[in-house]
Amino acid sequence: MKHWEHHPEPVEGCFGCKGLSIQMNTGDAHSQRSMPTKAFNKELDAYKAARAQGIQPAGTSMKKIQEAVKASEILGKPYDSSKMAPTKHINKQSAAVLNQLGA
Fold first, then answer.
1. Confidence of residue 13 (pLDDT cuts 50, 70, 90)
2. What's the 3-state SS for the chain?
3. How far apart are CA 35 and CA 4, in angstroms?
4. Which tens digit of pLDDT belongs to each residue from 29-80?
5. Are 103 and 78 in contact (CB under 8 A)?
6. pLDDT at 101
7. CA gap 28, 24 in Å, rounded
8. Contact at 8 Å (CB) between 75 and 98?
9. Closest by Cα among 18, 20, 21, 15 to 1
10. Which candidate, 88, 85, 81, 82, places its Cα nearest to that of 101?
């Protein structure tokens, strides 16, 4: 604050004036979001890709999306969390039974 006593108007080339005009930005650390933008966009892109394949994950988290994709690979068809068993119950044996039943 003493700097303004020497010259109240900013002077070009003055390091003190330049230092006083710097504004800090906390970026994602200050955000109310629970994750950084980059990770959020990555999850959205993964969800969008899964939905484009006809897969309906049980949620939008990366873990749920990956589980649904894996279940789809095991089943040989798109996984739908609203109509099918939870992903933790889907394995090669259960997939064979479901395919025999036509589910």
1. confident
2. CCHHHHCCCCCCCCHHHHHHHCCCCCHHHHCCCCCCHHHHHHHHHHHHHHHHCCCECCCCCHHHHHHHHHHHHHHCCCCECCCCCCHHHCCHHHHHHHHHHCC
3. 40
4. 555 656 678 888 999 999 999 999 999 999 989 999 999 999 999 888 899 9
5. no
6. 74
7. 13
8. yes
9. 20
10. 85
Which amino acid, one-letter code, is at 81? Answer: S
Question: Can you tell me the distance from the alpha carbon of 65 to that of 62, in angstroms, rounded to the nearest whole number?
Answer: 5
Residue 43 in tokens: 């999850």
What are the boundaries of each domain within the chain? Answer: 37-103
The identity of residue 34, as a single letter, is S
pTM of the model: 0.60
